[in-house]
Design brief:
The protein is mostly helical and about 625 residues long. The protein contains 25 helices and ten strands. It is about 60% helix and about 5% strand.
């Protein structure tokens, strides 16, 4: 058994490490691959967010598309399309069709060039010297037939020759020359140099080397960020890193967000559309604030590797994570998620505007469309509610929202308990109140133990009259053999588990049902049998609950509360001293029986729980004065 447990533990560790390794590999594969490896992000009017950049090789400065188009227009304005005379046509003046005249005017040609193949001569005519049949008749008073037709092949060849003379570059950057300094505002000229450098990287000899280094750099950064997160878990949250479901929960969140980012960037859309707050919100709802922030920062750092303007993006998303965690101290209502989304929208807007002004100091640097993206992202944040439900089912987690819904005493299951076993229902309510106060005193999850206490005895629904709190007359168990009676009592645990699973209660609540008696003895019937058979060696297994023992503070609190509440009902004296004695005896016997050996309770926790129980039970069973009878 020991070897099997060791092997299972080792297998679990390998699987969890493998999950993070696989996540790192998938992330690098998901990152969008660009046509070149010039992975800097820059915009005109914004500061250069990297170290000073110098040229590693000579490269030309290419003209912008606007400059090239302007020069092409200048060439075309002086270009003359080629025309030839129609055979046997009169040649007193150049006459073309109306469609040709419209084409020349539309393209803003300055004139035409007429080739005369018969005498190997070419003549140039200005637009003012060219006529259509209509304009010629109007000008000279007699009809003139069309005598010119365009030579399309010759025109296109000549035009291509002229355009080819336009140089695509206008300057040269030499190796070692400074291109842009860190923090320098990007001007049109600097932008043109950077664009030219990016174009140079498209060459195979440069691009292949850069792409290899780019992927290597991405891989190292992703592994580094994930390792830092794992180190955090080992140091501050070792229970998380030892739980496979929680590790998979972390990996799945990072994967979803990075996959969405890669998809958005591949389609050329803004990364601000993605609700990165999902990571912080989901982790906060199921786990704790510190881990939520750390996982959010890890995810954002990984996402920053490939986003445009990474400094601006990281700054904004850090603010988003802090707001998301701070506004969800304990999520118990749907409306809280809407409020959080509103705060995130406001925080993103302010952070983006502030960082843009801080970097550039001009209004023109603001991209108004980003504010629309912030709004869409905030709306998508509300959709996190559906993910909460989905992740609860996948990883068997339980959220505060679900716990609040389960504490509704009008729910079908609790209503059935109150109807069939009213005494058990009242007992569960009292245990719930005791356990809640004790959990608050030691910093345990009060809402979780409150909910578990309401359901811990649902197994008594099956045969409620076997339990003293539901009886109005004789106890049928007293007429049975103590061994059989013990088995009837013990059965409410297994029956409760069946009912809980049949009603799809969360696993955390089912654990309260199966562990609230641990492996303790059914002491009443055990003592009765031992007294009746003093010479017999009694098999304790016949009188012990099957377990398992509680492993959490909440489970231990419920076990104590259940026992002391039942014990208090047997007291004749409800003084504080009497109640304190009963509480201490019951808890001491549970400790001596080793029922809390697997829980993280400290001695101080136990003492604080005792004090709460004594105080609450004394208040619940306080003395009432007798009302005097009215004399007639």
């Amino acid at each position: 058994m020991s070897n099997k447990m060791t092997n299972d533990k080792l297998t679990g560790q390998i699987f969890r490490v493998g999950a993070f390794v696989a996540l790192a590999a998938v992330i690098v594969l998901l990152f969008p691959r660009y046509s070149n490896s010039f992975r800097y992000h820059y915009e005109v009017g914004k500061p250069w967010g990297y170290a000073t950049l110098t040229a590693d090789f000579d490269f030309p400065i290419y003209k912008t598309d606007e400059q090239v188009a302007k020069e092409q227009q200048q060439v075309l304005s002086s270009f003359k399309p080629a025309y030839r005379y129609i055979r046997d046509a009169q040649r007193q003046m150049p006459v073309i069709s109306l469609e040709e005249m419209e084409w020349l005017t539309r393209n803003e040609f300055g004139g035409i060039r007429v080739y005369n193949a018969e005498i190997a001569k070419k003549n140039d005519f200005l637009m003012s010297e060219i006529y259509t049949m209509k304009s010629a008749y109007k000008r000279f008073g007699y009809e003139c037939a069309q005598n010119l037709v365009r030579d399309t092949a010759l025109t296109e060849k000549a035009m291509a020759r002229e355009l080819s003379l336009i140089s695509p570059t206008n300057d040269l950057v030499q190796k070692g020359e400074r291109i842009v300094e860190e923090g320098e505002i990007i001007t049109e000229k600097t932008y043109q140099k950077l664009q030219s450098l990016a174009r140079a990287y498209e060459e195979d000899s440069i691009g292949n080397r850069q792409r290899t280094l780019s992927v290597l750099g991405e891989s190292v950064l992703v592994i580094l960020f994930l390792c830092l997160f794992v180190i955090y878990l080992y140091v501050f949250r070792p229970a998380y890193v030892r739980t496979t479901s929680i590790v998979l929960f972390f990996c799945l969140q990072i994967f979803i967000v990075i996959a969405l980012e890669s998809l958005v960037l591949s389609f050329g859309m803004s990364v601000y559309l993605i609700p990165f707050a999902w990571v912080a919100i989901l982790t906060r709802v199921f786990l704790d604030s510190r881990t939520a922030l750390y996982l959010h920062y890890t995810t954002v750092l990984i996402a920053s590797i490939v986003v445009p303007a990474p400094v601006e993006f990281f700054f904004v998303q850090v603010v988003v994570g802090m707001v998301a965690v701070s506004s969800l101290s304990d999520m118990t209502r749907r409306a809280q998620l809407v409020q959080t989304a509103a705060w995130i929208l406001l925080a993103q807007t302010v952070a983006y505007t502030a960082i843009t002004f801080a970097q550039t100091g001009v209004f023109s640097s603001i991209v108004p469309l980003n504010y629309l993206y912030f709004l869409i992202s905030a709306i998508l944040t509300v959709g996190c509610y559906g993910l909460i439900y989905l992740f609860e089912k996948i990883f068997h987690f339980i959220s505060s929202i679900t716990l609040v819904e389960l504490t509704d005493i009008n729910s079908d299951l609790l209503h059935t308990l109150a109807e069939r076993a009213p005494g058990t229902f009242q007992h569960s309510m009292q245990v719930s109140n005791l356990a809640t106060e004790a959990a608050k005193a030691i910093g345990a999850n009060a809402l979780l133990v409150r909910t578990g206490a309401l359901y811990h005895d649902i197994g008594k629904i099956t045969d409620p009259l076997y339990y003293v709190e539901n009886q109005a007359g004789d106890n049928p168990l007293l007429a049975m053999d103590p061994r059989d009676a013990a088995q009837v009592v013990i059965a409410h645990v297994s029956e409760g588990e069946k009912i809980a699973r049949r009603n799809h209660l969360p696993e955390a609540i089912v654990n309260f049902v199966t562990t609230h008696h641990g492996t303790s003895l059914v002491r009443y019937f055990y003592n009765t049998y031992c007294n009746a058979h003093p010479d017999e060696k009694v098999d304790e297994k016949l009188f012990r609950y099957p377990g398992a023992k509680p492993t959490t503070k909440e489970g231990a609190i419920l076990m104590m509360a259940d026992a002391v509440e039942a014990r208090s009902r047997s007291l004749d004296d409800f003084s504080e001293a009497s109640i304190a004695k009963a509480v201490n005896q019951m808890i001491d016997s549970q400790i001596a029986d080793g029922q809390f050996a697997e829980t993280p309770l400290s001695f101080k926790d136990v003492e604080d729980i005792r004090a709460v129980f004594v105080s609450r039970l004394t208040a619940m069973n306080h003395h009432r004065i007798s009302y005097p009878t009215l004399n007639k």
